[in-house]
Amino acid sequence: MSVLGVDVSTTAVKAVIVDRSGAVRASAAVAYPFETPHPLWSEQDPNVWWASAIDAVRTALSDAGGDEVEAVGLTGQMHGLVTLDAGDRILRPAILWNDQRTEAECDEIREAIGRERLIRVTGNDALPGFTAPKLLWVRRHEPEVWSAIAHVLLPKDLVRLRLTGDHAVDRADGAGTLLFDLARRDWSDEVVAALGIDPSWLPRTYEGPEVTGTVTAEAAEATGLRAGTPVVAGGGDQSAAAVGVGAVEPGVVSLSLGTSGVVFTTTDGPRIEPEGRLHAFCHCVPDRWHVMGVMLSAAGSLRWFRDAVAPDVGFADLVEEAASVPAGSDGLLFLPYLTGERTPHPDPRARGAFVGLTIHHGRPHLTRAVLEGVAFGLRDSLELTRNLGVPVSAPIRATGGGSRSALWRRILADVFREPVATTSTSEGAAQGAAMLAAVGVGWFASVEGACRELVRLGDVIEPSGDASTYEDAYGRYRALYPALAPTFHAMP
Description:
The protein is an alpha+beta fold. The strands form 7 sheets. A 7-stranded mixed sheet has the order 17-18-16-15-21-22-23, with helices on both faces.
């Protein structure tokens, strides 16, 4: 017997089948693009998610050799806006998490509620990535769509609707809409009313392992799943990925080193950074919350550098060169704000920079400076977490493509002054969603119990003597943004 995790990400649907031991029996992914019809816009046709989910699930089931799936868990990209009419027909392309068109609507939200009150209730300041400002943008610019709305969903929950016929959302993903009462773990009557949103549009909320419905006969025929298979709520991609690496107990930190970078720390209650520089959301684990710092260009910075400077060199070879350079890159610093930033500087106009270049520096120095600059940016999030009084339990659990580099993990351990470990789970958020499904159908009594049973730590790298070098360099790094921000803001 097995469980299925389905991850509806920005670029692909991944389906992962996991057995009772936690082993991945099969996985499949179906990729798709997103559209940028105007500058700052990012949209996707929701129909592509369901079509891709059908293909991914069918392929995974075939590769698993007919093993029966007992339950399904869902995860996916957060914050996206899906609008449906009363017949569940899609009204417009989904507006995605990385869309930046809603600066005016964010100001409107702060004015309607008050910035301090907004942060106190929802745990977050108004940022363009969240769902609420997208809704207000539709009201202002597409009144014909606004007048037809009957349901609002998040991306993975459109797939849930097609699987089960139910409108539902988990509380972790719901908390990412800017419409949630963080402490109450449900929609905020105050915020919804202040923004003039019809509360009947919002789906019922569930804890991550709760069953929200079952696979319909029509969906069973499309996907190859058994009709009546339970579907659990699941979680937004970051909280589901945290389940996958066992970051479910207070103080356990998950570090995601993908295109973007995320420092995710589980808490036993709502912990709100007063300026909203950290995101505070519900966890997909019942009675757990988390704080999360996000940098927009983590491994994405390394990809940009490789593509721009050494397009014919593999990542492994590029990083191997960097290992020959001493810690601190001989005084060279890199500011990784290539696509603006969210934590600790919520500034879409921030820019990247190399600072301290001399004739002595070569490509290996530049590469290592990129690795170190990303580590410094991630430390900013860790320091904000510590300043909230949230305990940090060692080791930090690293995931994502960048974490496969032993050099990068060593740099992170030295910059953080904390051990950094890999884990036994390999399929990220989809595997976490499958684990939530396993809890939902009784394989384990709790998510914490499932993680204790299934997640094992891998390689652990301890801080080295280079930590003191990085402490000095980090101080210089932190001075860069305040010094350069006026120049950034004067740029076209």
